[in-house]
Design goal:
Blueprint lengths: L14 H13 L5 E4 L15 E4 L6 E3 L6 E5 L4 H9 L3 E2 L12 H6 L7 H4 L6 E7 L5 E5 L11 H5 L8 E8 L1 E2 L3 E8 L3 H11 L8 E5 L1 H10 L10 E8 L1 H15 L6 E6 H13 L8 E6 L5 H11 L2 E5 L4 E5 L7 H17 L3 E7 L17 H11 L19
Parallel strand pairs: 1-2
Antiparallel strand pairs: 3-4, 4-8, 5-9, 6-7, 6-8, 10-12, 10-13, 11-12, 11-15, 14-16, 14-17, 15-16
Helix pairs in contact: 6-10, 10-11
Length: about 425
């Protein structure tokens, strides 16, 4: 699906045209510039002051693809689905699961540090970005890293820009290291009666002989939603652990059997193994869970992995559907469709927010009704790192010409 252009956006055809525009803006009108790609994450945060959007989707060239080196250099506007299709011709992949991949661009996914179920086994963008080219707010072009996996030591600007939401620089080009495509993938869907049984299994997995690529904990509401969306008939009356393994057919078969032996004694009530099309459908559905359009509010909580089960149980008590990346402590939640007012949303969120804080975590809103934003913790509760992030923003963008961090004061520009 193609997102329509907006008439007032600046749409550069080349990186050189973009650099000229940014430099002229800094020397002239000094409008605030907000880089955008597929526009899949514009609803994040509290809202922004008026800005000139810079649409990077035409910067989508493949600069270099030395497949034998297992790296690729591309412009930031390339769509994730198009990039994965290119890599698949060489049996390679960027093993990061990104929702709405037909729309999402590499630059946008990198700027929001988007990831999904396979984060447990594969990591995040910070593990794969080895080179980056970007523009500061005054149009200065700079580079970080390089086009080889082992490059010169120094300050890792690549990691700084991952997750920066376009607040520090406009990313124009990225070099990624890649992984081989696995021969096959399969899932175990383990259904339990109680959450304590799941807790025992997660502890057992710490010493498992297997190497799962994903460990997803779903409370009953989420399990039902996932099964329906994936068009799979799966047990969902209690909490569910969905565990993925990848590799050669022989490796996958061995891991599936090992997991069955390790986990079934802990109280599994029902189990299903998913392969081939069913396995792909489940992965796709789990990846798309954060962007379910019919739900009134979607949130993300970050916790210690050891606190995921308790959080999922509390969410189940409240009727909130949650998907926990149980190996990482990242939780995605959907409020029930019946939530019609801000007061109802707040009543459901407050216990979960308090539980996240008690576990030294946080809870932020990914998507909600525009009118609710002023009364919700859109960016989570204040954290000690926020002043440091503000200082970084001031140093790299002293005129305040680029998209601000949602929690950084908007007016930082010099007179």
């Amino acid at each position: 699906m193609t997102t329509p252009r907006v008439a007032d956006d600046f749409v550069p055809a080349t990186a050189a045209e973009l650099q000229r525009f940014v430099a002229e803006n800094a020397a002239g009108s000094r409008e605030r510039l907000c880089p955008v790609g597929g526009r899949t994450a514009l609803h994040y945060g509290t809202g922004h002051p008026p800005c000139k959007r810079v649409d990077l989707r035409d910067l989508s060239k493949v600069i270099d693809y030395p497949a034998r080196d297992m790296t690729v250099t591309v412009e930031a506007g390339i769509r994730i689905a198009a990039l994965q299709k290119l890599l698949a011709t060489e049996r390679q992949q960027l093993p990061i699961d990104i929702a709405q991949s037909e729309r999402a661009t590499l630059g946008g996914a990198l700027a929001t540090n988007t990831n999904g179920p396979r984060r447990f086994g594969a990591g995040t963008f910070r593990d794969y970005v080895i080179g980056i080219t970007a523009l500061t707010g005054d149009g200065t072009l700079f580079h970080g890293g390089g086009r080889v996996v082992k490059n010169v030591a120094g300050y890792d600007v690549c990691k700084l820009l991952v997750g920066s939401r376009g607040a520090l620089a406009i990313v124009t080009q990225v070099t990624l290291k890649l992984r081989p495509l696995p021969e096959t993938m399969a899932w175990w869907w383990f259904a339990f009666d109680t959450f304590p049984e799941v807790e025992n299994v997660l502890e057992r997995l710490l010493t498992s002989a297997t190497r799962p690529s994903a460990i997803e904990l779903l409370n009953p509401s989420a399990a039902k939603m996932i099964g329906t969306a994936a068009r799979l008939t799966l047990p969902s009356n209690g909490p569910v652990l969905a565990i993925a393994v990848e590799g050669t057919a022989r490796e996958v078969d061995w891991q599936l059997e090992a997991l069955r032996k390790e986990i079934v004694p802990f109280g599994v009530q029902q189990l299903e193994v998913l392969r081939d099309v069913a396995a792909t459908s489940l992965l796709d559905t789990l990846t798309e869970f954060p962007v379910c359009a019919d739900d009134p509010l979607t949130f993300q909580a970050n916790l210690r992995p050891s606190q995921c089960v308790a959080f999922a149980e509390e969410a189940a008590r409240l009727g909130v559907a949650v998907q926990c990346h149980a190996g990482n402590g990242l939780v995605i939640g959907q409020l029930p469709e019946e939530t019609a007012t801000l007061a109802q949303a707040t009543a459901l969120l407050n216990p979960l927010r308090q539980q996240a804080q008690a576990a030294e975590g946080n809870l932020q809103i990914l998507h909600c009704d525009e009118e609710w934003k002023a009364g919700l913790p859109m960016c989570g509760d204040a954290e000690p790192a926020w002043p440091l992030m503000d200082r970084v923003k001031r140093q790299l963008d002293p005129q305040g010409l680029l998209n601000p961090f949602p929690f950084v004061t908007h007016d930082r520009r010099e007179p």
